[in-house]
Automatic annotation (TrEMBL):
Family the entry assigns: Belongs to the Nth/MutY family.
Keyword 4Fe-4S in record: yes
Keyword terms of this UniProt record: 4Fe-4S, DNA damage, DNA repair, Glycosidase, Hydrolase, Iron, Iron-sulfur, Metal-binding
Lineage summary: Bacteria, Pseudomonadati, Bacteroidota, Flavobacteriia, Flavobacteriales
Record domain HhH-GPD: where: 35-186
This protein's record includes keyword Cell inner membrane: no
Name of the molecule in the record: Adenine DNA glycosylase
Gene that encodes it: mutY
């Protein structure tokens, strides 16, 4: 039995029952694929269900306010995905009359849709014979065929896409694409796969050559930057606080946060006190400054490690544009700030 037949047979017996697999609706498939970029299925599924409930059609999503979209996305991370999702929905709804492009080439024109996502939508919704290539596909094919190409190279995707296309049954590309991704997610996992129960254990070259842990080859390492965030949680005599919107490009764009003092290293009370005096955060007289915790909350992003501290700043009088805790909770925040609010601000 050849690779594709065995793979698909395994898939039909082992596939997970996921809500976006029970449809060929391109809106639902597009939503799921954007959400599952750099997100585990278990984490992404509740968000998919929440979005399809709040926005049953692409028109509903297009007409929503961006803050509403970001609030619902809160906790998924990589917030540029949500902003691009919203822009693409507006384009499909208002420029294409709600009809998604029906082929790989035109799907690539949607904001936030890259080669992998376009291939997934084109094959799952329209059965177009175009292969998906993601981390799972790299891993399965490199191990089975003992391909030592460095997947960090730009040329690697083209090589693996050509191999996947050759293997793909052209009459049913959707099932093949879903099967190879599912196989990589459930069976041919990155670390310590259970090769003894694998359907390919008689023919996998990496297993025969004892190279499972060496493949796929990936040389490029991401440089991680350390940043130090000090958030000022202002509290006035009515227990109102103030927040600001992150309008600059970069992490958490268009999300909200408390007034921020970013430092070059971890700093203590004296630094915060002096910085507050020289800043324009509030005109009110500062009564007290107190740290909520004596250690940083380390928040790890793909390319940055954020060392976050929250400082309680009590001031006299009333702050301008102050909001209470109930209103505060209605804004979209980065998940680390959202969790702090839920824990500390009753």
């Amino acid at each position: 039995m050849n690779f594709s037949n065995l793979l698909i047979q395994w898939y039909l017996l082992n596939k997970r029952d996921l809500p976006w697999r029970n449809t060929i609706n391109p809106y639902h498939i597009w939503l799921s694929e954007i959400m599952l970029q750099q997100t585990r299925v278990a984490q992404g599924t509740p968000y998919f269900l929440a979005f399809t409930t709040a926005f049953p059609t692409v028109f509903d999503l297009a007409k929503a306010d961006e803050e509403q979209v970001l609030k619902l996305w809160q906790g998924l991370g990589y917030y540029s995905r949500a902003r691009n999702l919203h822009k693409a929905a507006q384009y499909v709804a208002f420029e294409l009359n709600g009809v998604f492009p029906n082929n790989y080439k035109q799907l690539l024109e949607l904001k936030g849709v890259g080669e992998y996502t376009a291939a997934a939508i084109a094959s799952f919704s329209y059965n177009e014979a175009v292969p998906v290539v993601d981390g799972n596909v790299f891993r399965v094919l490199s191990r089975y065929f003992d391909v030592e190409t460095d997947i960090a190279l730009a040329s690697a995707k083209k090589e693996f896409a050509a191999l996947a296309f050759e293997l793909m049954p052209k009459e049913d590309p959707a099932t093949f694409n879903q099967a190879i991704m599912e196989f990589g997610a459930l069976q041919c996992v990155p670390r310590n796969p259970e090769c003894t129960i694998c359907v390919f254990n008689a023919s996998c070259l990496a297993l025969q050559k004892n190279k499972i842990n060496q493949l796929p080859v990936k040389s490029k390492k991401l440089k991680v930057t350390k940043r130090y965030f000090n958030y000022l949680v202002i509290g006035d005599e009515n227990d109102n606080t103030i927040i600001q919107k992150r309008t600059a490009k970069g992490i958490w764009h268009n999300l909200y946060e408390f007034p921020l003092i970013e430092s070059e290293k971890e700093e203590g009370f004296e630094y915060i006190e002096n910085s507050l005096k020289s800043s324009l955060v509030v005109d009110n007289k500062v009564i007290s400054i107190m740290e909520y915790d004596d250690k940083s909350n380390v928040h790890k992003l793909s390319h940055q490690h954020l060392y976050i501290r929250f400082w309680k700043v009590t001031v006299a009088g009333l702050v301008i544009n102050g909001i209470d805790n109930k209103v505060l909770r209605s804004f979209p925040f980065p998940i680390v700030i959202h969790n702090f609010i839920e824990k500390e601000l009753k």
